[in-house]
Design goal:
Elements lengths: L7 H9 L3 H23 L2 H18 L10 H19 L1 H4 L6 H14 L6 H7 L3 H11 L5 H8 L3 H19 L1
């Protein structure tokens, strides 16, 4: 099977039958894109590679569970990658690899630095500056840094419901300000 002409349904059926060449064909066709998807979720290349490695183990072990009637094979493969990436985030391994600066401080600094890069006269900057500092920080951590609501709550030491409400209200306030 050439990597460019791989039929993913056939390759998954091959994996289910124990054909290692089928797994290799899937790997050669999809690995780079899978690493990209995982990297967008976990924010670190080395973790993204770990995610994809674990995803391929799961694909190998669970290929027999793929049901073409429930969706395309590519969707099934990428759902495994996404779920594995989320599992790594939940396990805390992402946080184990950060620098010595406390994450809550580093994240807030990065979020505010991103807001500072918006030119002075732009409506978005003016509207962001109109938000209360902690609400602006949580919003920027979600949309600039890509943190989940739970990660933001943990980093800022706030209840999850508070963070969700702040982000939702801040988005409404931004929409009204920019509208």
């Amino acid at each position: 099977m050439a990597a460019t002409t791989v039929d993913l349904k056939e390759a998954l059926a091959g994996c289910a039958a124990g054909d290692r060449a089928a797994l290799r064909a899937i790997y050669e066709r999809e690995c780079a894109a899978m690493i990209g998807v995982a990297a967008r979720i976990v924010k670190r290349r080395e973790l993204a590679e770990e995610v994809v490695q674990e995803a391929f183990v799961r694909i190998w072990r669970n290929a027999h569970r793929y049901n073409p009637e429930l969706g395309p094979p590519r969707a099934w493969l990428y759902a495994i990658v996404r779920n594995q990436a989320i599992n790594i985030l939940r396990s805390g391994r992402r946080e184990d690899l950060v620098d010595e600066v406390p994450e809550d401080v580093a994240s807030a600094v990065e979020a505010h630095a991103a807001a500072e890069r918006i030119p002075e006269g732009q409506a978005l900057r003016r509207c962001l500056e109109g938000l209360e500092v902690r609400r602006r920080t949580s919003l920027l951590m979600a949309y600039v840094d890509g943190f989940s609501h739970g990660e933001i709550a943990g980093r800022l030491g706030l209840p999850l419901g508070t963070v969700k409400a702040w982000i939702r209200r801040s988005l409404v306030q931004l929409r009204e300000c920019m509208g």
